[in-house]
Design brief:
This protein starts with 5 loop residues before the first helix and ends in an 8-residue tail after the last strand. Among the domains are: 96 residues, Nucleic acid-binding proteins (OB fold (Dihydrolipoamide Acetyltransferase, E2P), Beta Barrel), CATH 2.40.50.140; 133 residues, Rossmann fold, CATH 3.40.50.2300; 41 residues, no CATH class. α4 links the parallel β6 and β7. The protein contains 11 helices and 13 strands. It has 399 residues and is of the alpha/beta class.
């Protein structure tokens, strides 16, 4: 009998597993237990049911794509392959994808995701962006062969043929649908559209599962362009509806609120043109008034203005000085007239003018005393009109 090493036996058994094509792709249902999230990113757990247990591992590359939160006690359907781990000599299920078993589990997981996104504030109305009043480029993420794009184009043609509809084709159901929708949103955002419509027709909950994707919700939330959700389905809102800026029931309704009426646009443009003209006229008038005020200030501060001001001040002072001099001259003239009158009263000529005469002898000496005159002396009587020559015939002394 041959002797084999442990490694040889394990390698032989691994080869047997490899040759069994049934074990290459299996779906195993069971309850999760002994769940461990390793720091490497791998997930280790055990699947069990009433008949036994099966070790399982989900490597990091596959775990990163896991959309559902995994917990002990969850009933799941794990897809993968069964093989042996040679080092330990134990076989295990290498899981590539996980689906929670049962409709109730799916709804429970959906509610958990809604709660998580709600706690993050993704649904908060404060983050909702308004749809532009006038959108000239409207992006649409949907199937290129479905009725959604047809309905949108039909409504757009009726309301405003000049609006551009930019279609980004995407899968709207099945595996990878949410990834193509995310790619469409990001591409249209880069193209610079004014608003994005994400839509599809009606369908079952399974058909519409792509619109309950967490990555899609975050792509809509982080998009700078307003997004309108037009996903045809029942009364329950999808996560896409809840996170979108606007939710409408049909693609036609989305076109109605995003495609503006041409006549309304023309009327609004004319009104705004009139308002703009009035605002421009007022602005120009205000600027002209301000310019005049500055011109007046500049003129007031200019050297010529200062010279005129100083000249006016000097002229005013000169006028005041002249008025003061005139007043003083008037006072002086008045005083002179008073003195003249006084001097007139004391003047001999003034007295002579009243019938008196000044008497001198032939030598011109004043005769002020009759004792100095002898009979026969020649005298001169000086009056205002002239001189009278006379001879004293006698002297009479007053008692």
């Amino acid at each position: 009998m041959n002797v084999y090493t442990v490694g040889q036996i394990n390698a032989y058994i691994k080869n047997m597993f490899t040759q069994d094509y049934l074990l290459h792709s299996v779906i195993v249902s069971g309850e999760v237990s002994n769940l461990k999230f390793h720091s490497s990113g791998h997930i280790y757990f055990t699947l069990k049911d009433d008949s036994g247990i099966l070790s399982a591992v989900m490597f990091r590359s596959n775990a990163a794509r896991l959309r559902q939160k995994l917990s002990d006690g969850d009933r799941i359907e794990a897809c993968g392959s069964v093989n042996i781990y040679e080092r330990s000599g134990s076989y295990q299920l290498y899981v590539t994808s996980i689906k929670k078993a049962g409709e109730g589990a799916e709804k429970e997981e959906l509610e958990r995701l809604k709660q998580k996104l709600s706690e993050m504030g993704v649904f908060d109305p404060m983050y909702k962006k308004p749809v532009p009043k006038y959108s000239f480029r409207i992006g649409v993420v949907t199937s290129p062969t479905g009725s959604v794009i047809h309905d949108i184009r039909q409504v757009a043609g009726r309301r405003n043929p000049g609006v551009e509809i930019v279609l980004h084709p995407a899968k709207v159901q099945g595996e990878g649908a949410s990834d193509t929708i995310i790619a469409g949103i990001r591409a249209l955002e880069k193209e610079g559209v004014d608003v994005i419509i994400v839509g599809r027709g009606g369908g079952s909950d399974e058909d519409l599962s792509a619109f309950n994707d967490e990555a899609l919700a975050m792509a809509i939330f982080n998009c700078a362009v307003p997004i309108v959700s037009a996903v045809g389905h029942g009364d329950d809102e999808s996560i896409t509806d809840m996170v979108a800026d606007v939710h409408v029931p049909t693609p036609s309704a989305a076109a109605e609120i995003t495609v503006f009426l041409y006549d309304d646009f023309v009327r609004d443009v004319n009104m705004r043109t009139m308002m703009l003209e009035r605002m421009m006229t007022k602005h120009i008038d205000d600027k002209r008034g301000a310019l005049r005020q500055r011109a007046l200030r500049m003129e007031a501060l200019s050297p010529a203005s200062k010279i005129r001001l100083q000249r006016a001040l000097y002229q005013n002072k000169a006028q005041k000085l002249e008025d003061l001099m005139n007043r003083k001259l008037d006072v002086a003239k008045h005083k002179v007239l008073i003195y003249i009158e006084k001097y007139k009263a004391l003047s001999p000529l003034e007295k002579i003018g009243h019938g008196f005469a000044a008497v001198t002898d032939d030598n011109g000496l004043k005769v002020t005393d009759i004792t100095t005159v002898n009979p026969g002396d020649n005298l001169r009587l000086i009056m205002r009109e002239g001189v009278i020559r006379a001879t004293a015939t006698g002297i009479e002394k007053r008692e």
